[in-house]
Amino acid sequence: MKKSSTQSVQDYLKRIYELTENGSPASTNDLARELNIKPASVTGMIQKLAAEKPALLEYQKHQGVTLTPTGKRAALEVIRHHRLLETWLVQTLGYAWDEVHEEAERLEHVISEDFERRIAAALGHPLRDPHGELIPTADLKMPADKSTSLSALRKKQAGRILCVKSADADLLRHLNEIGLTPNTMIEVIDYSPFDHNLTIKVEKKTYVLGLSITSKIFLEIA
Amino acid sequence: MKKSSTQSVQDYLKRIYELTENGSPASTNDLARELNIKPASVTGMIQKLAAEKPALLEYQKHQGVTLTPTGKRAALEVIRHHRLLETWLVQTLGYAWDEVHEEAERLEHVISEDFERRIAAALGHPLRDPHGELIPTADLKMPADKSTSLSALRKKQAGRILCVKSADADLLRHLNEIGLTPNTMIEVIDYSPFDHNLTIKVEKKTYVLGLSITSKIFLEIA
DNA sequence: TTCTGAATTTAGGCTTGACTAATTATATTT
DNA sequence: AAATATAATTAGTCAAGCCTAAATTCAGAA
Question: B114 to chain A: which residues are within 8 Å by CB?
Fold first, then answer.
């Protein structure tokens, strides 16, 4: 029996999933920042979720939290909803990739399993969303990610953009304008070890990108 | 500045709109029944909404409630969302008309104005939803309803179905099976004054329908 | 007109999930 | 190793919205 969690709980689980993707527990402060909720409130909620009958979180005071298998499944369900919705807003309603986040953020909590199945089928069970983020499968597994951060590439290396990890609409619009969207080929022309700027070539044009951008772009190396 | 109301408030306004369509105020009890909320709680909410800065409700103790112009606009907004969503679930995701209500009931509270505009445009600014219910216009006016209840027709009268007012999935499925859906032509063959049963002809076949059905079907008289 | 039952309202309580302020742990310096 | 800064937790509040139980008001019947 799957008890449906509240919108708040779903948000917590989703953020914790994201913050623990690197393998380490999520801190109260980081979670609070991501959720726009005060740390004290976050402590309260994680203690509640860790204490539930089938616990959703693993939690030791002052040590941060991780998801239990149950919590992870719930998180992947929400993330699947989110990414399917973003894909679908772009493909069927003509949204731009910088316009979908907010809308999906609200819709993800209210769609039925039936709705999820219908849009997944209508979209042909997509692997990635409009930003290139991997979409958890219907059985709630996250596909393996084989991408490399553009920030790790050096002179002469090249690749194809797989994913742009950002919800910043202004940045996304800018990247779209200069053609840095999934599936585009990129070549690194130069690297500056001092500021970590990368000079890259895209479609005959070159751009110098700072780390705050290159760290958000992920590629399949050519 | 339009302050967005909570989902609860939106539900209250929507139900009050429906209950006051006949011109008389909505009673606490009727509202409680429609909302599946205890009458005492309804009283509390009604008093709160009637006391807000721009009041949403007109309320006198023991006299029931009506919507103020502000409340009516908010109600029509929700109803527009609901009906556009139902239309859109049917037209683009292949839902059947008996499957859309629950889904729309949840989605109606979270879609943006942008989303509303996009689906309205994609659907060609429809006048009616899949049940034939009129969809409030973008400037929040309810189009005039010129339909007549099937229950008011008598022997020899005929018409075209405009609307089926029911959220009962079983009934909707049954009506669909016997072909009683919007746009279908109906002719009254017989009327029984004792039980108010009507014998009608649809596509060469005849059916005897009770008042609980005929009162929910609305037509344009031929 | 008075009575009775249904409808409505009041009173008081509970849960969820947020907040602030104050306290306690942990980490970082010196 | 002590002092301090940062992170996390506790304690106590609050607003929404629901609930039950106990009044109260109204409307129709006697």
Answer: 99, 103
Q: Structural domain of residue B163, as residue ranges?
A: 148-221
- DSSP class of residue A5? P
Q: Is residue A58 part of a domain?
A: yes
Structure tokens at B155: 């022997």
Shortest CA distance to B218 belongs to which of B175, B176, B160?
B160
Rg value, chain B, Cα: 19
- Per the rule left: phi > 0, alpha: psi between -120 and 50, beta: everything else, B179 is left
Instruction: Give the model's confidence band at A185: pLDDT under 50 very low, under 70 low, under 90 confident, else very high.
Output: very high
Nearest to A97 by CA among A132, A125, A134: A132
Nearest to B9 by CA among B67, B62, B64: B67
Cβ of B9 near strand D (distance < 7 A): yes
**pLDDT (tens digit, 9 = 90+) per residue, A122-178?**
999 999 999 999 999 999 999 999 999 999 999 999 999 999 999 999 999 999 999
Is B139 within the bounds of a domain? no
What does DSSP assign to residue A150? G
Q: Which residue of B has its CA nearest to A120?
A: B93
Residue at minimum CA to C1' distance from nucleotide D6: A29
Q: Which nucleotides of C are covered by protein (CB under 7 A)?
A: 7-12, 16-22, 25-27
Rounded to whole angstroms, how far apart are CA atoms A180 and A218?
11
| CATH number of residue B41's parent domain | 1.10.10.10
**Under an 8 A CB cutoff, do A94 and B118 touch?**
yes
Q: What region, left, alpha or beta, does residue B156 occupy, with left being phi > 0 and alpha being psi -120 to 50 degrees? A: left
Query: B95 lies in a domain?
Result: no
Burial (CB count within 10 angstroms: exposed 0-12, middle 13-18, buried 19+), residue B160: middle
B103·A94 Cβ contact <8 A: no
- Which pLDDT tens digit goes with each residue over A33-77? 999 999 999 999 999 999 998 999 999 999 999 999 999 999 999
Task: Identify residue A63 by its one-letter amino acid code.
Answer: Q
